[in-house]
Amino acid sequence: MSGVSDGTLAYVSSFVNTLLNISEDQASLHRVCDVYCDDARVTFQVTPYILDKTATSDLPNRETRKNYTRDDMLPYLLVSSSLLKGSWPLPSWAWATDCQTGEKNLDKKRRKEQRSIQQFQSENERRIKKSIRRRRFTSISEFQGSHSIQFFAANSWEVEQLYSLVPRLLAIRDDSTTTIDIVESGPFGVLFRLTTLALEIPLPVPRKEPLVPQVPLVRWVHRTIILRPPPIDKICHEDVCVIPVSETAQEVRHAPTFSGNMHINVDFICLRQPYLSLACL
């Protein structure tokens, strides 16, 4: 594709394989320093479903509304999970459109939605620091609720600790469920977005055996990564956003995960206009 060399595509694809191999294997977490800079900054966020109140008015009771989700809520979910006030930087790509447009230029429906988002963010502002929990979770479902949950790591050692705290997310390494979006590439590094469909493998609970086998859940994992170029070849900044998959998509939970090198179809790799200049880093 124009603007992205074959060498860059191969380089990023190879690095992604290495990153996934290390982060998905608890026994390999000591190798985190091989893919993250010593001063790397990483945010890890898990977002819940957010209900559209206008779409639930015809449901019979509060309990039904509570458990109601819609397949078309993904864009709203991504926007409302971004850049919580008083927080560390979260994926700016999740809300860039509304931010750049401005409320005055939005139609009535979008203004109402944006105000709802701002209210949601304000409610999270006073809870955000309590959301950073330094304890071990057996399942991502344990810390999904009415508010987004975050982790923050400021160096490679903390990144290793972060990965040991959260359940394993095994990427389904297939062209149909994996997208690499190269935003910008230059002498200062590569800025790209990685989207994978992943299986959540709950962490084992010490001295407790499950009565029935635990079936993995399916999550979308969005990662925005700034990768330093050779000879460094390490991540200096990463935003990870884990979001639920609708029940209708859970049928792929038994899809196989592929080992070894992952082949990324060039048709799924697209070059976007840069929203961040690597030269300023």
Q: Mind explaining what this structure looks like?
A:
- The protein is of the alpha+beta class and 281 residues long.
- The chain has a domain of 194 residues: Nuclear Transport Factor 2, Chain: A (Roll), CATH 3.10.450.50.
- It is built from 6 helices and 8 strands; from the N terminus they run αβααααβαββββββ.
- Strands 1, 2, 3, 4, 5, 6, 7 and 8 form an 8-stranded mixed β-sheet that branches.
- The C terminus is likely disordered.
* Second-tier CATH architecture of the domain at 6-54 and 136-280: Roll
State the order of secondary-structure elements, H for helix, E for strand.
HEHHHHEHEEEEEE
What percent of the residues sit in helical stretches (DSSP H or I)?
Answer: 10-25%
Tell me the Rg in angstroms: 19 Å
Task: Please describe the biggest sheet, giving its number of strands, its sense, and whether it closes into a barrel.
Answer: 8 strands, mixed
What's the overall average pLDDT, rounded?
64
By CATH, the topology of the domain at 6-54 and 136-280 is Nuclear Transport Factor 2, Chain: A
Helices, by number, come to 6
Number of strands: 8
User: Low-confidence stretches at least 5 residues in length (pLDDT < 50)?
Assistant: 49-59, 62-101, 252-281
What proportion strand? 15-25%
Using the alpha-carbon principal axes, give the shape.
Answer: globular
Question: What's the CATH first level of the domain at 6-54 and 136-280?
Answer: Alpha Beta
Structural class: alpha+beta
Span between termini = 27 Å
